[in-house]
Amino acid sequence: MDTGTPLPPGRKPILCYVTDRLALKAAPGTDALLAGIRNAVTAGVDWIQIREKDLEARALVALVRLALESTRGTGTKVLVNDRLDVAIAAGAAGVHLGETSLPVERVTEWRRSARLMDFQIGASCHSTEAAKAAQRGGADYIFFGPVFSTPSKIAFGPPQGIERLREVCMAVQIPVLAIGGVNLENASSCVEAGAAGIAAIRLFQEVPEAVVRLREK
Choosing a second label site near 54 at 20 to 30 A (CA), which of 2, 85, 106, 166? Predict the structure, then answer.
C-alpha cells in the first residue's frame, strides 16, 4: 500500500488510538483488541482511548485495567471514553467526553475538588464554538472532526475539511487532535493546519506500522 508522505520535519504529533473491538476484521473480541493495544504501545502510540460503549461497567473496568497493564513502564496513557466512573475505578489517566457525556465544567470541578490535577480531560467538538466552550470549561485537549469522510462519523454530519480544522486550531490554545478519516496519505495536512495530533480507530487498528511511519522525520 502507499505509505504516504511523512509529517513535516520537527513535528511530533500526539498519536491516539481509539479502540473499537467490534470493528476488528479478523476477530472482533477483547483478546484481539488487547493484542492490538499491545502492538500500538510497542509501536509508541501516545494515548489509547478505550471506547467500547456497549460494555457494562464491570467488564469495561476490567478491560481498562488490562490495557493499563500493557502500558506499564511506557509513556503511553490510557483514557476512557465517556465513563468518568470507569476511568476513576480503573485508575486511567483521564476521560474523554462526548456531546452527551458529563459537561466538561463538572468534570473539571470534580478534578479540582479531588486534587487530581494530572487527570486528563478531553472533549469531542464539531464546531469552533464548541471548541472554545470546551477550553473555557477546563478541557486539556479536544478532538475535532470529522475532518475527512469516514463511516464511523456519519452521524456527525459531512466532513469538516482542513480549513475548518485550521480555524479551530487558531481559535483555541489547547491541543487539537484531528479525527475522522485520517490516514497515512492525509495526516500531514492535518498537522500543517495546526493540529497537535491525530486520533483514529482504523488507522492504528488496521495498520500497525502507522505509528512508526508517522514518527518518521
Answer: 106
For residue 80, the SS3 value is strand
What is the reported pTM? 0.91
Beta bridge partners, 15, equal 198
* pLDDT band for position 1 (cuts 50, 70, 90): very low
CATH of domain 14-215: 3.20.20.70
Alpha-carbon distance values, 58 to 84, 107, 188 (Å): 13, 21, 39
- Do the Cβ atoms of 97 and 121 come closer than 8 Å? yes
pLDDT score of 62: 96
Dump pLDDT digits (tens) for 148-198. 987 665 665 688 999 999 999 999 999 999 999 999 999 999 999 999 999
Instruction: Give the mean pLDDT of 101-106.
Output: 96
Q: Using alpha carbons, list the distances in angstroms from residue 168 to 117, 176, 210.
A: 25, 8, 25
The 10 Å CB-count burial string (b at 16+, else e) for 171-202 is: ebeebbbbbbbbbbebbbbbbebbbbbbbbbb
Report phi then psi at 109, rounded to 5.
-65, -45
- Output helix, strand, coil percentages for the chain, rounded to the nearest 5: 45, 15, 40
